[in-house]
Amino acid sequence: MLGWQWVDVVGSGSMLLTGTFVRTIDDKQRIAVPKPVRDSLGFPCQKVLYLAPGTDSCIQLYPEDVFMDLAAQLGRASPTGQDVRAFSRMFYAQAQRVEIDRQGRLRVPVELAEFGRLAREVVLLGVRDHLELWNRDQWSSYLAETQPRYDEIAENAFGQPPPTGGSGHVSTTTEAKPTQESLRSSRPR
Questions:
Q1: Cα 85 to Cα 79: distance, rounded to the nearest angstrom
Q2: Of 27, 105, 110, 129, which residue has the fewest beta carbons closer than 10 angstroms?
Q3: What pLDDT does residue 186 have?
Q4: CA angle at residue 113 from 28 to 83, to 5 degrees?
């Protein structure tokens, strides 16, 4: 089932974004933002999103306040760090501010559509505090590759070491210490 939900994260004051929507890009590079998403964003008062290159060849869509929080977080990193400089250049140079129009659509900039290899059919995902826009075939491939490892990924995401051994259980076998008799019998005579 495809759907959408924003819920208040207990005590945090922030919103949790979930759901999956298959969308179509029109000839003018626009996609219709689902009404529940627009409502959750506070549309029409809040209609600004920032589109930026994401990981795994997706496009990330940030509400304005989340984008500003991300910028503040990146701003706290050392500007002399090579990865910080490189990421900042690539991210901000390609990020673009867009507005949801009166019909509830947003235009995906051509450069970002090319980055995301977007075709006519795309998938819009809720990912906690932002959205991701994927080429539908790439999303299907990503899901087919990662879904079978869901348990392992969940354990790693929450800091649990993955199980070891072929059975999926942590091995509790300990190596036996050699006894005096075994040492005597193994000595050459």
A1: 6
A2: 27
A3: 44
A4: 150
